[in-house]
Every structure is written in C-alpha cells, then in structure tokens.
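Example record used in the benchmark description.
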Amino acid sequence: MKTTVGKPRIPATGRLARTAAATVALCVLGGVGTAYAYWTATGLGGGSSTNGTMQDVTVSALVPGDTLQTTLVPGGTADVLVRATNPNPHAVTIHGFAANGAAVADASHAGCTTTGVSFTPPAAPLNPPITIPANTSILVTLQGAASMGTTSMSACQGAQFAIPVTLEVRK
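Model output (structure tokens):
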C-alpha cells in the first residue's frame, strides 16, 4: 500500500455530491414536515379561573356636607345629587342612571302629594365616564336631571325631594 504524506485524501466527486444532496434533502424535508405539523396540529385541553363576587355599589341620599346648588321651581329644572359608594377592592365605572320610582317630598311637606317632579337620566354610557375608586364614596351631580311640572301643589314650595334612582356600574 502506497501512502502519500502531506496530501489530503479527496473523496470521489460523485460520493460528495450524493452526500450533499442527501443532507440538503433531509433539511428541506425536515423543515417542511415541521411547518406542516405546526400549521395542522390541534389540541384539546381545559382551563379554569375564579372570579370574586362584585359587591353592590350603593346610592344614598344627601349626607351632611352635601349641598344643593340649584332650586327646583314649577316649570323648571334642577340638578340631582347622587352619592355613590363603592365597597369593592377595585374601581368601578358608572355606566348609567335610571329612574326607580316617584319623587317624594321631605317629611316637613306632608301636604305635597302631587309633586310634579320627574327624573331624566343622562344618556348611557356616560360621557365622560365616571369612575368610583375602590372603597370610596363620591358625589355625582347630574345637571338639570330633575324637572318640576306646573301641576305641582303649592304645599311643595320649599320642599326637598327624594328621587329614587338606580345606577349601573361596570368593572
């Protein structure tokens, strides 16, 4: 056997070409197979989550320190003040208001049986939105939301009216 020192052995050209072609083919087929598997794979599974229960946001009548800025007169309108309390550990946004019964005059105006007072809520969703921070109470002024018809009794003069409203809040 004859050995040549210093010269590397060069494989036959045909074998090198076949090896290179096989390597390229495997890479291409492997890539296509992976892409095909990626785009056609499906799976099934399940998941779960828990959600805390949102507590009711309450609406209350005026509290000490809340003062009315407008006066209601027959044929006119006035602002409605709403105190909303959010007992939740997260902020909520007031989506809208709605009437929830007839307006009633305060106890010192018992003769005011025909109040003629109505409530016109602002359009929902409120614009701009009103957010009540977590564990907070805010005072909301609904401008011109109360109106008094001309059929109101004279006994209603000077009365303060309770107007039942509900509000819709969203997290």
